[in-house]
Amino acid sequence: MKKTKKTKVVRNIFFIALCVGLFFTSMYGIRCGFYKMCEIEMLSKFVRHDVTILMPKGAIQVEVAQSKASRELGLSGRPSMGNDEGILFVFDAPGKYGFWMKDMNFPLDIIWINESGLVVDIERNLTPDSYPKTFINEVDASYVLEINAGLAKEFGLFLGSKVKITD
């Protein structure tokens, strides 16, 4: 009897693990097939790190792109982004970082921020048809924030504005 009970428990655990695995596999297939969000981007949804950025006129929670792969991918290929979303590119050292609108489907505001949280450069309302032009900050930055076009003004972001990045 003990062996039968133990076998049932093992079988139930295996069945639950299989169901969980199938669920995540099917979600990947749906996201990849329908939304074209595959590979690195889809996997990052399960392990991504988000932070909150406090700005002069509000706050927004953003996805962090800290690895080279996630920085290269950025928002490329995404169909859209909500007004309560954004992406923050984090760099190892202050510098000049160029961005372009390759494979973008919606316009953006791009904000360069230094290590003290000061906005050092802004490009507003960049449209996908601006590609292949590259936009580069003039003053060294440690972070770059991408949000939907028009939100920089709405959140009170101008040269010299102060932001705070919190976990």
- Helix-and-strand structural type: alpha+beta
pLDDT averaged residue by residue: 84
Number of beta-strand segments? 9
Give the N-to-C terminal Cα separation: 52 Å
Question: How many helix segments?
Answer: 4
Q: pLDDT under 50 segments (min length 5)?
A: 33-47
The strand order across the widest sheet is: 6-5-8-3-2-1-9
Output the radius of gyration. Answer: 21 Å
Task: Explain what you see.
This protein has four helices and nine strands. The chain has 167 residues and is an alpha+beta fold. Strands 6-5-8-3-2-1-9 form a seven-stranded mixed β-sheet. A two-stranded antiparallel ribbon has the order 4-7. The protein is elongated and about 70 Å long.
Q: Which key phrases capture this entry?
A:
167 residues, seven-stranded mixed β-sheet, two-stranded antiparallel sheet, 9 strands, alpha+beta, 32% helix
Strand and helix map with partners:
Elements: H1 2-35, H2 39-47, E1 50-55, E2 58-65, H3 68-73, E3 87-95, E4 98-99, E5 108-113, E6 119-126, E7 135-136, E8 141-148, H4 151-154, E9 164-166
Parallel strand pairs: 2-3
Antiparallel strand pairs: 1-2, 1-9, 3-8, 4-7, 5-6, 5-8
